[in-house]
Amino acid sequence: MEIKYLDKSDQKEINELKDLWKIVFSERDIFIKWYFDEIPDSNRTTYLLKVDGHIASTLQVLKYDFCLFGHKVKGGYIAGVGTMPEHRKKGFLSMLLKKALNDMYNEGFVFANLIPTNPAYYKSSGFESVYKCKYINISGLSKYQTNETFNEDFSDIDPIYKEAVKGKNGYIIRTDSDWHEIITSCQVEEVKILRTQKSYFIYKVYDDTLHVLESAFFSENELWGFLGKIKEMYPQVKRAKIRTYYNKYDEIKDFAMARIVNAKAVCEMLNINDVGVYDPIIPQNNFTPSNSKSMDIGMFTDFVFSKGDNVINLICWVQ
Question: Which of 52, 98, 191, 244 would staple 186 via disulfide (CB 3.0–4.6 Å)?
């Protein structure tokens, strides 16, 4: 068994990885071709765990600039996590995560995040839930009264995004190339958008469920106006899965997880001293100050500092 980086010059290895994606993620050929052959891969690192010379498990780290506590920092988005069926429940994901997280620390990353299929897989590597998704029952919804006019134009949504994240914490600082990749990905995967002059909802409908993949809106009326439009366009839809501020809906489930990668960097950002850290995944995070009790703060949402009688909690994530 070995853990290695994908050899971008080895077409046989790349083809084997594509085959794994087809099996594990059921991805269509058109998406795999676009993802591996047509978009630049300079901002991602692909990890492979091989058994007897063949890929058993894989994950990718996509590199982005984030705004965290008012600072521009390097963040890693973990994606493309998959293990061949015959190699599951062997701890391979934990091995890959440990390797990737330590690489991220050495490369100056401050934190990592991901969208889990099963949150339990990531708990042991220090990840905690940072925001939730809600399932809203819209089976009985009729057209919602709204003055907004919706269209399906992807262009020029960056100003809406910037307004939505203003004053928030933990968001991606998107570039023009980021938006180009997002929009092209949506076109390849047949993902759609409904937007107004001041809000947008990127979505896909699967059978009777609406999946909102990204949204930027500023009132509950905007949300219900969008849901009413969806019900008009897709009468079969009975529920909507969306990440939202409003907590009064039917089901709430984990949507994204994250963890601190460099504890000392975050301490310096917040001007916090004399704090102990225990991190079994990234040993370089471990330190014990002379005047403070050490605390286990390897997990993002458990990253709590005690400073005198004050407690500073780093749970602060854009929603």
Answer: 191
Q: What pTM does this model have? A: 0.86
Is residue 286 in some structural domain? no
Count the domains in the chain: 2
Contacts made by residues 16-21, CB under 8 angstroms, sequence distance 24+? 16/54, 16/55, 17/46, 17/48, 17/55, 17/58, 20/55, 20/58, 20/82, 20/84, 21/80, 21/82
Cα 2 to Cα 278: distance, rounded to the nearest angstrom? 28
Residue 55 has a pLDDT of 98
- Which of 194, 221, 237 is the last residue in one of the domains? 237
Output the pLDDT for position 319.
26
pLDDT at 310: 32
pLDDT score for 248: 56
Residues 6+ apart with CB under 8 A from 159: none
Q: Same structural domain for residues 103 and 149?
A: no
pLDDT digits (tens, 9 = 90+) for 152-178: 999 999 999 999 988 887 789 999 999
- Domain containing 12 equals 2-109
Mean pLDDT, rounded, for 270-295: 72
CA distance 92 to 37: 27
CATH of the domain at 38: 3.40.630.30
